[in-house]
């Protein structure tokens, strides 16, 4: 950051001579210290997981959720400034509700990510505001079958014009990550927060692009990755929070829900044993901070 | 020419005098529903020992025309309660979307407790009363069935005027005249509810659906029926056929062109 | 609407368009509003006070026209108590007429009386509550709560207090009052039995010399029996009255609720 002190970093929306918006880069710094968040797009659903650092022993375990539900089929988890994350979620809920009132159908994940990206981006354009101090992972399931419009009371023609096409498939799992600049991409696996580098390299090993990982296996992997990524800040205690979304005929019936307690505990147990095994092999040297994209 | 765009295209003040802006009606008078258009008929419900049974036929009428024959008038809410809706179908669809959005916002937090049928009825009655007070009513009468906060059977009604009442048996529309007296034979008092089995309640409701089909010209023999219990949750069947119909009595009808024995 | 203004006015004094000449193909006359925002749910209420108590009673039938909605729909409520149990309440209110307005009115007054307690740390007096209720009703003067309300409790001296209202907030403190569908049946009975109207002392003379029987506060058990008689009689003669009688008795010991079945025909 050679340009620090030149004055171009003191105001939002102002470019430095080499074309950077420093306020956005500082916002990214806020994210880099947040709890690690992971999202995995599996073949039959999406998993979201977050490492919740316990900042006080007086906090009630299991309370103060960090993963939020936006619409029935959408969940958001974010790293960075928590109040910024809350506001971001609130905006996402408004967008989802507004889409529903216009189109009488749930918002497609691509559209939601687009609107949220646009919203975040707007906070880089004005000197009167600061950029969002969060990177958010948005996960969801776009209905695969033809969905009735909200408030529909009949079943429509069973055949012929206006009838449904049997076996037609669309939608599926979706995972997006939105950064403080407003840029957003669709991912097979996404990670943000303090342990993102470790998490990303672990995600890459999963071979997600081949689309073979099942949702159940994804839950276990997400838990393991959070535990692995936590190794660098071992001195701090943390709590694992996870949610998942499956298709209509999967375990969550197309809804974004918390991962059931017994399943979460099972995944945590596996994650811990996996870590112990790794320690014995003594292979993983702590990775240094490499260049960010 | 005046540089203000607002003045462009308008008669010049210096020639015609100032424009009388009062002629510019910015909006038409607001209009509200004056009468229902596409309508659903009766909804019936009976409380029993450990739950509630509710039924409504699948017809939406356009005046005397049987317009839509696959209309689901029992709308489930968060898999624990159900609302049976009679009256205007478009208002019913609005209410369904309203309940849908309520369900979405209720699931923002996963605190473990969710709205029960009693809460739902209170919510709907406030919606209905507010709309009638705005002289913009939702033209419906609804029965809310499910379980209350103590997991006891709950059944209550609310209509377009915001009037609410509760009873062991309820029926809306034509059913209030034809079915309710028959249902009251099954349970005329809250204290009797504990003696009624699920089978008895379902049988009574089905029998009443049949009576209504015989005598209500705006009814259909395809219907939806739901049972809510603590154990079984919400069991909803949306495409049932009225069984055991007998039109033998039609033979005895005289008049309307049929004057003597066939 | 746009075409209305597109015609070219040649002279300001001679407009080419007049609203009175507007071509209208609408049916002549005003269309009547299709929605009437009120209904009558029948039933009757009645309140009587004694020296150290107040009673308000109401039948529990709710009707729509000739139909009975339900046989148990309370018209008398505790005001200022706990939401579920009514515990801690010291005022009672009855509402008869349009039940939805009655519920709304009850809930408003209840919230106000509770807020009063939280804000001032003391219970609202029945007198203050009575005035407040009048204000609420009058505030909706041009879209009234279509109900006849009766408010009861004990006044600052511990004497029974009863206030009766019209739908727009006109009110007065009384010894007794009947309201609702069978008010015209019950009220004369009350005049005679509570205020001893048309009762004269035998042997005190003829015509104007006859001495009226002096009123005296009635004991609780007598009043209770009067109320029950009033409702059994009203049930006989009025189709909208019946099913059950709910009675609230306020004494310095608190509020007691009683229920007696009435004929259900």
From TrEMBL, chain A:
Bias class Acidic residues marks the residues at: 276-293
Q: Where is the Proteasome alpha-type subunits domain positioned along the sequence?
A: 8-30
Tell me the keywords, alphabetical order: Cytoplasm, Nucleus, Proteasome
- Ranges for the region named Disordered are 247-293
Q: Where in the cell is it found?
A: Cytoplasm; Nucleus
Q: Which SMART domains match?
A: Proteasome_A_N (SM00948)
InterPro entries registered for this protein in UniProt: Ntn_hydrolases_N (IPR029055), Proteasome_alpha (IPR050115), Proteasome_alpha-type (IPR023332), Proteasome_asu_N (IPR000426), Proteasome_sua/b (IPR001353)
Q: Where is the composition biased (Basic and acidic residues)?
A: 255-271
- Superkingdom assignment: Eukaryota
CDD domains in the record = proteasome_alpha_type_3
Quaternary state and partners of this protein?
The 26S proteasome consists of a 20S proteasome core and two 19S regulatory subunits.
Which family is it part of? Answer: Belongs to the peptidase T1A family.
Q: What is the protein's given name? A: Proteasome subunit alpha type
Which organism encodes this protein? Lepraria finkii
UniProtKB/TrEMBL annotation, chain B:
Localization (cell): Cytoplasm; Nucleus
Q: Can you tell which superkingdom this protein's organism belongs to?
A: Eukaryota
Q: What is its main location?
A: cytoplasm
Q: Which UniProt keywords apply?
A: Cytoplasm, Nucleus, Proteasome
Give the PROSITE patterns listed for this entry: PROTEASOME_BETA_1, PROTEASOME_BETA_2
Tell me which stretches of the chain form a coiled coil. Answer: none
Q: Supply the SUPFAM superfamilies for this chain.
A: N-terminal nucleophile aminohydrolases (Ntn hydrolases)
Which InterPro entries does the UniProt record give? Ntn_hydrolases_N, Proteasome_beta4, Proteasome_bsu_CS, Proteasome_sua/b, Proteasome_suB-type
Q: What does this protein do?
A: Non-catalytic component of the proteasome.
Spell out the PANTHER family in the cross-references. Answer: METALLOPROTEASE TLDD, PROTEASOME SUBUNIT BETA
Q: What family does the database annotate?
A: Belongs to the peptidase T1B family.
This chain belongs to which protein, by name?
A: Proteasome subunit beta
Automatic annotation (TrEMBL), chain C:
Q: Which CDD domains match?
A: proteasome_beta_type_1
> What is the annotated localization of this protein?
Nucleus
Q: Which key words tag this protein in UniProt?
A: Cytoplasm, Proteasome
Checking SUPFAM superfamilies in the record gives: N-terminal nucleophile aminohydrolases (Ntn hydrolases)
Against Pfam families, the record matches this protein to: Proteasome
Write the protein's name: Proteasome subunit beta type-6
- Species of provenance: Lepraria finkii
């Amino acid at each position: 950051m050679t340009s620090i002190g030149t004055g171009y970093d003191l105001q939002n929306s102002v470019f430095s001579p080499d074309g950077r918006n420093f306020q956005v880069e500082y916002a990214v710094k806020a994210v880099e210290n947040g709890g690690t968040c992971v999202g995995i797009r599996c073949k039959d659903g999406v998993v979201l997981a977050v490492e919740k650092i316990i900042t006080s022993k007086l906090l009630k375990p299991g309370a103060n959720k960090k993963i939020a539900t936006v619409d029935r089929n959408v969940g958001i988890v974010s790293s960075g400034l928590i109040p910024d994350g809350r506001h971001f979620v609130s905006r996402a809920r408004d967008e989802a509700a507004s889409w529903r009132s216009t189109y009488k159908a749930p918002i497609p994940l691509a559209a939601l990510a687009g609107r949220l990206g646009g919203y975040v981006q707007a906070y880089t354009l004005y000197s009167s505001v600061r950029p969002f101090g969060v990177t958010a992972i948005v996960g969801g399931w776009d209905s695969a079958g033809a969905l009735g419009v909200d408030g529909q009371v009949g079943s429509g023609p069973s055949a012929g014009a206006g009838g449904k096409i049997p076996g037609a498939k669309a939608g599926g799992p979706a995972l997006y990550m939105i950064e403080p600049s407003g840029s957003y991409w669709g991912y097979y696996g996404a990670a943000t927060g303090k342990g993102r580098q470790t998490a990303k390299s672990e995600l890459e090993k999963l071979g997600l692009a081949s689309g073979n990982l099942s949702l159940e296996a994804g839950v276990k992997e997400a838990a393991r990755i959070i535990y692995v990524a936590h190794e660098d800040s071992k001195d701090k205690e943390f709590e694992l929070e996870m949610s998942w979304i499956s298709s209509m005929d999967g375990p969550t019936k197309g809804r974004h829900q918390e991962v059931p307690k017994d399943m979460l505990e099972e995944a945590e147990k596996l994650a811990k044993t996996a870590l112990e095994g790794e320690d014995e092999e003594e292979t993983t040297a702590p990775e240094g901070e490499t260049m960010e994209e | 020419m005046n540089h203000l765009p607002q003045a462009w295209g308008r008669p010049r003040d210096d020639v015609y005098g100032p424009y009388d802006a009062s002629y510019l009606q910015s909006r038409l008078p607001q209009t509200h529903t004056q009468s229902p258009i596409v309508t659903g008929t009766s909804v019936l419900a009976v409380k029993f020992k450990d739950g509630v049974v509710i039924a409504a036929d699948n017809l939406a009428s356009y005046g005397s025309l049987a317009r839509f024959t696959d209309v689901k008038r029992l709308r489930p809410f968060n898999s624990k309660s159900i609302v049976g809706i009679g009256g205007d179908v478009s208002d019913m669809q609005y209410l369904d979307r309203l309940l849908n959005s309520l369900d979405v916002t209720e699931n923002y937090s996963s605190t473990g407790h969710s709205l029960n049928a009693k809460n739902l009825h209170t919510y709907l009655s406030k919606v209905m009363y507010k709309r009638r007070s705005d002289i913009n009513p939702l033209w419906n009468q609804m029965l809310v069935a499910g379980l209350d906060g103590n997991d006891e059977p709950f059944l209550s009604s609310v209509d377009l005027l915001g009037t609410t009442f509760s009873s062991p048996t309820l029926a809306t529309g034509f059913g209030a005249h034809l079915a309710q007296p028959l249902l009251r034979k099954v349970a005329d008092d809250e204290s009797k509810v504990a003696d009624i089995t699920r089978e008895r309640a379902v049988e009574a409701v089905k029998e009443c659906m049949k009576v209504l089909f015989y005598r209500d010209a705006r009814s259909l023999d395809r219907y939806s029926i739901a049972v809510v219990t603590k154990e079984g949750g919400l069991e909803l069947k949306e495409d049932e056929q009225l069984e055991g119909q007998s039109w033998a009595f039609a033979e005895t009808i005289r008049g309307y062109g049929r004057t003597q024995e066939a | 609407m746009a075409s209305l203004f597109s015609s070219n006015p040649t002279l300001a004094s001679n407009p080419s368009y007049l609203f009175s000449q507007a071509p209208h193909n609408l049916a002549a006359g005003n269309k009547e509003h299709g929605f009437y925002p009120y209904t009558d749910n029948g039933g009757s209420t009645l309140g009587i006070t004694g020296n150290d108590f107040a009673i308000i009673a109401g039948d529990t039938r709710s009707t729509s026209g000739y139909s009975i909605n339900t046989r148990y729909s309370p018209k008398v409520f505790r005001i200022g108590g706990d939401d579920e149990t009514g515990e801690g309440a010291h005022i009672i209110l009855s509402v008869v007429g349009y039940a939805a307005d009655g519920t709304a009115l009850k809930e408003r007054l209840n919230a106000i009386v509770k807020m009063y307690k939280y804000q001032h740390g003391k219970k609202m007096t029945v007198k203050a509550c009575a005035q407040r209720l009048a204000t609420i009703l009058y505030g909706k003067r041009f879209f009234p709560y279509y109900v006849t309300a009766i408010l009861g409790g004990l006044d600052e001296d511990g004497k029974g207090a009863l206030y009766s209202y019209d739908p727009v907030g006109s009110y007065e403190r009384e010894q007794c009052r009947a309201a609702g569908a069978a008010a015209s049946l019950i009220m004369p009975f009350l005049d005679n039995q509570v205020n001893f109207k048309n009762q004269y002392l035998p042997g005190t003379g003829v015509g104007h010399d006859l001495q009226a029987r002096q009123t005296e506060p009635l004991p609780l058990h007598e009043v209770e029996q009067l109320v029950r008689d009033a409702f059994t009689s009203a049930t006989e003669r009025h189709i909208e009255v019946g099913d059950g009688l709910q009675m609230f008795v306020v004494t310095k010991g608190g509020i007691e609720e009683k229920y007696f079945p009435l004929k259900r025909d």
